[in-house]
Amino acid sequence: MERPSLEINLPDTHEEGKLYVVDSLNNLNKLNVCPDESQRSLDEEENTAGTGERMAGSNTRNQCLFFFTFILTLIISLALVSFVIFLIFQTRNEVDQISSRLLSEKKNIEELKKINKIILKHLNQSGIKE
């Protein structure tokens, strides 16, 4: 009678051994497939699967942060563009001033050349030689 009871216990231990081997293979597969960081994130997802409220709050906070960053970037870009436009107008005014000075100096040089020619003609006509 003891023999049948031994035979009944043996398959149970054999099935437990199979379950242990399957668990060991699953754990080994997780270690080989997923690096530590992704395994932690998978474990955290499993642990926080029931807390949809935290996920929704985090999502809303991320959207607000993104919106704030976007608005701040737009404001900074607008300020930079305005500054560049100001510099362009300022440079244009400076170039206009310099070009007007050059034109006036060119006129002065031409007048000096005319005066020089007149003086040379007068000196040649009067007979004064150097």
From TrEMBL:
Bilayer-crossing regions: 64-89
Alphabetical list of Pfam families matching this protein: DUF4577
Segments of this protein annotated with the region Disordered: 36-57
InterPro entries the record matches: DUF4577
Protein keywords: Membrane, Transmembrane, Transmembrane helix
PANTHER family in the record: LEUCINE-RICH SINGLE-PASS MEMBRANE PROTEIN 1
Protein name stated in the entry: LSME1 protein
